[in-house]
Amino acid sequence: METKKFTKNDASFHCAHCGKEVLPLGYTSRNHCPFCLYSLHLDIHPGDRMNPCGGLMEPVRAYPDPKKGYVIVHRCQKCHEERQNRAAHTAKIQPDDINQIIQLTVKPF
User: Fold this and answer.
1) Which residues touch 33 (CB under 8 Å, ≥6 apart)?
2) How many CA atoms does the CB half-sphere of 67 hold within 13 Å?
3) pLDDT tens per residue, range 29-81
4) 78-94: per-residue pLDDT in tens?
5) Model's pTM, two decimal places?
6) How many Å is the maximal CA-CA distance in the chain?
7) Which of 34, 64, 80, 83 is the most exposed place for a label (fewest CB within 10 A)?
8) Contacts of 91 (CB under 8 A, 6+ apart)
9) Inter-residue contact 33 to 17 (CB < 8 Å)
């Protein structure tokens, strides 16, 4: 049986890193804080919230993608897995901090 690779889970949350309230995007699952860009290691597939790790995911670099805009690479501080996530710097509600994203683009791979 084929499993779904994406589950829409667009709920508000308080950031585990900076403590700010993060509002839903309204069109897809928001998986990181737009203020500090940190995330939690909660998903196996986007939005499923099935990963038992639960570690804090630090934004370690970013790169521009012609189809997706900017992509942020997060590294789990607990298990060290890296995940890539599309930035929401053009969102109408709490857009990602574009200055922080640009700073991440100068970090080496």
Assistant:
1) 15, 17, 18, 20, 22, 39
2) 1
3) 788 999 999 999 988 887 778 889 989 999 999 999 998 899 999 999 999 99
4) 999 999 999 999 888 89
5) 0.85
6) 43
7) 80
8) 25, 34
9) yes
CA–CA gap between residue 70 and residue 76 (Å, rounded): 20
Q: Which residue has the tokens 């995007």?
A: 25
Which one-letter amino acid corresponds to residue 70? Y
The answer, yes or no, to whether residue 9 has pLDDT greater than 80, is no
Provide φ and ψ at 61, rounded to 5°: -165, 170
**CA 85, CA 78: separation in Å to the nearest integer?**
18
Residue with tokens 């709490």: 94
Residue 109 contacts by C-beta under 8 Å, 6 or more apart in sequence? 61
* CA 36 centroid distance within chain: 10
Q: Read off the tokens for 19.
A: 């403590």
